[in-house]
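thread: overnight batch results

M.L. [08:02]
morning all. the overnight job finished for the chain we discussed friday. pasting input first so we're all looking at the same thing
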Amino acid sequence: MLDRSRRPMVLAVACASMMVVMMDISIVNVALPDIRAELDAPLSGLQWIVDAYSLVLAGFLVLAGSTADRIGRRRVFRAGLAVFGLGSLLCGLAPGIGWLIAARVVQAVGGTMLNPVAMAIVAATFPDRAERARAIGVFGATAGLALGLGPVLGGALVDGLGWRAVFWVNVPIVAVALVCATLFVPESRAPRPRRADPVGQVLVVSALGCLVFAIIESHAYGWTSPLILALLAITVLATIALVIHEPRRADPLLELRLFRSVPFTSAILMALSTLCAFGAFLFMTSLYLQDVQGMSALSAGLRLIPVGALIATLAPLTGRFVATRGPRIPLLTSGTALTLAAVTALCLDEPLPTYLLIGVAIGTSAPPITNTAVSGMPTSMTGVAASLAATARQVGTTLGVAIVGTVIGPSLSGFHTIWWLILALGAAVVVLAFLGTGQWADRTAREAAALFDDMDAAPERSRDVDPLLSG
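M.L. [08:03]
and the structure it wrote out:
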């Protein structure tokens, strides 16, 4: 067992990795107008700068988590830091929009080896249930803090040093984290390593990639074009194939039995909803403040300070609250604030109340969602459960950016329509908060965990077909 005095350092290294991965989702948004001006990028190119990153994260996080459980979490974590640092350096050196998007893919490949693996490292480092809950709360709060600080830091870097600095700033942070990971993070593996699922991986990437490509490029080709219809058809077919294929695997990429836990399922849907809303908000607001209102990157970042300040303040407080009082109240607060933010944006000309409510919504969402997703899961499933929760965040962000670009179009109109989407997402979070935190939900979580306890007790038992799924 790891010495108690080293555990805070392991948590700090994990949080640092979460910080750079999540911040690179939001920090880039304020740099988009400058990138467009220098590299002559179309609106769809700006969408791909954001979505190439989040899409790769979404597509490969589960694979990275299960691979780390099998071959060693520290080994994968350190490789992720090195690749992420290299990708960040290449982004800052990119001579054109295509090169920048390609470098974002490299960066994201490294990111896939950081986010869920860091969560699994934290869970393995803190075996006591209460300590683990507090550590997960801090780790989850870091995600919200990074998303909130990204626009402010990005604005300062863009105006002071240029847009390339928003990528180069990651390099020294990653270098320090890599050294600390080598010195302090112990190696750990799942008790029963999971085998690879290449078919499932191809189906996941196909479904997500085709869906996002169809949404982003619908303006250029039209929703009724053969290409877009074919992409949507592939999305549907790949999803159906996943549902059929995964239960037949001994070690599926997507462990569908986790979704029998209502708290886990609710957490996944709430992560998708809140990050879809926040991704849409950041992309839309960054373009609106700079391209429509004519603000500089720094002024736009400063305008978003209320969002970042509230996230930075509320996220750690919410993490401690969840550790002692449970997730329901923070989740209800998050959903209500998100709904009210959309209402104020639609009814008022003053943006400050909207920004404050967005800050409250995101600041109170990450810790309870993260805690709910992993809570009650056996150790052998921690990496997979954390990977699915992280995947939901990235899918939400990806869809939010893709939808915004489709709705507002190159003319940057239709901003009000996005707020109706955010209103619906906030209302969904409220409903899911009630469904996912009651006694019935807790019972389903215990029943789901028992399935994996039985599996770990008798790993030689055939699981090729799930008996409950077979009838």
